[in-house]
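Exercise 7.
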Amino acid sequence: MTDEASVHARAILPDGWQRPRGYSNGMAARGELLAIAGMIAWDAREQLVSDEFAAQFRQALANVVAVVAAAGGRPEHVISLTVYVTDKREYIAELAAVGAAYRELMGRHYPAMALVEVAALLEPRAKVEIQGLAVLPVRA
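Solution. The predicted structure, written as tokens, is:
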């Protein structure tokens, strides 16, 4: 069995529901589960890359993708993302840039997602934190 054959993920859409844009209502998958800690816009030296929201979103998502890659996976193995933002209005205002960064890093793969506005994040300058789950190929 190849690695690809050992991972099966599918989007779940209840009968009669409209297909969501930019996320899936649910994902079912088989393989090795990888939990990805909340990632902020730190670079490899733990320095924030920017104070701009879209740049922080891009770096936080790139960090999620890097963890998945380090575990032997690809963006399409991500089944769930939770995005924490300190200002949902800023997220909405930057949606075009956020969407472009998302497609650059994740392609047209849309896992189950949630967006949560929080009062603050642990790093005082952080505006976004992204946590995820991925299902990786089972290694022989």
